[in-house]
Amino acid sequence: MSRTCLSVNMAMTLDGKVCRPDGKWYGLSSRNDKRRMDQLRAEADALLLGKNSLLQDDPVTHLRYVEGKSDPRPVILIRTGTLPVDRKVFRHSKTKPLVYCTEKNAKEVRSTLSELTEICVLGPEDIESTDVLRDLGTRGYSNVLLEGGPRLNDSFFRKNLVDKINLTIVPFVIGQEDLPSITGSSIAYENFDLQSWKLIRTEVIEDEIFLQYERRQ
Ligand SMILES: NC(=O)c1ccc[n+]([C@@H]2O[C@H](COP(=O)([O-])OP(=O)(O)OC[C@H]3O[C@@H](n4cnc5c(N)ncnc54)[C@H](OP(=O)(O)O)[C@@H]3O)[C@@H](O)[C@H]2O)c1
Q1: How far apart are CA 86 and CA 138, in angstroms?
Q2: Does ligand 1 lie within 6 Å of residue 18's CB atom?
Q3: What backbone phi and psi angles, to 5 degrees, belong to 41?
Q4: pLDDT tens sequence for the chain (217 residues)
Q5: Kind and range of the H or E element at 42?
Q6: Ligand 1 pocket check for 50: Cβ under 6 Å
Q7: What's the CA gap between 205 and 209, in Å, rounded?
Q8: 188 CA distance to ligand 1 centroid (A)?
Q9: Is 89 helix (H, G, I), strand (E, B) or coil?
Q10: Where would one find coiled-coil regions in this protein (predicted)?
Q11: Signed CA dihedral, 176, 78, 192, 18: sign only
């Protein structure tokens, strides 16, 4: 059986930041970027979303700019605590989001989200990205889109699980040095300089650039 394909989709400023100083991303992506995001989502069957992004940005996760396609199923990883039920992903999803949690917070997650989501316990205290992809594969999801944030992306990049990177460069410079990029933690990836990515597509629309890279085999 072929492995589930995992694509990252992120937007960053000209100086490589993926959030504003207040920890949110409102107002920096154009309508063109949102349309492009929906095109990528329409090709995916599952959409991985970070817990902090849902808390801070509360993104719209259903398709608005593409017609006649199904929304990918939202998939959320919650390692500690739970999420408020008022998030858009819980209120507007056509299919019940799938939530991965741990044995440690399963009770809390079930008490808040069992009506709105399907819950799957995947590890005692942590959720391994490899287990997530494997479980999604056994559920029949073959094309998964990972939309950040950087911490969630890091857990997949660190295990070499990312096959494609879709990147939008937006025309702003923020300047604050401690804001995150598309991925990362305090430790660099081993042999990062031996693994360059292959540019397979570029598109310029107005002041934004859309880039698509894939992992070299
Ligand atoms: N520009 C863009 O395209 C874009 C897209 C998305 C987000 N963002 C920005 O990204 C920021 C949020 O990113 P973030 O890095 O702080 O958080 P995040 O990646 O959205 O969420 C990370 C959290 O998810 C939970 N989690 C559960 N299992 C995990 C695992 N295996 N690996 C990693 N995390 C796991 C952890 O919280 P618990 O341990 O508490 O469960 C972790 O702290 C926001 O500022 C948002 O605006 C930007």
Answers
A1: 30
A2: yes
A3: -65, -35
A4: 567 999 999 999 999 999 999 999 999 999 999 999 999 999 999 999 999 999 999 999 999 999 999 999 999 999 999 999 999 999 999 999 999 999 999 999 999 999 999 999 999 999 999 999 999 999 999 999 999 999 999 999 999 999 999 999 999 999 999 999 999 899 999 999 999 999 999 999 999 999 999 999 8
A5: helix 31-43
A6: yes
A7: 6
A8: 18
A9: helix
A10: none
A11: negative
> Please, are residues 94 and 121 in contact by the beta-carbon 8 Å criterion?
no
Q: What DSSP designation does 71 have?
A: P
Whether the CB of 152 sits within 6 Å of ligand 1 = yes
Domains and their CATH numbers in the chain: 5-215 (3.40.430.10)
User: Collapsing DSSP states into helix, strand and coil, what is residue 167?
Assistant: strand
Instruction: Indicate the helix (H) or strand (E) that contains 165.
Output: strand 164-170
Bridge partners of 144? 6, 46
CB of 97 closer than 6 angstroms to any ligand 1 atom: no
- Contact predicate 183/150, CB 8 Å: yes
- pLDDT attached to residue 159: 97
Ligand 1 pocket mutation pick from 51, 129, 155 by most atoms within 8 angstroms of CB: 51
Residues 93, 74: Cα–Cα separation, whole Å: 8
Is any atom of ligand 1 closer than 6 Å to the C-beta of 129? Answer: yes
Closest listed residue to residue 106, CA positions, set 127, 87, 85: 127
Q: Give the model's pLDDT for residue 2.
A: 66
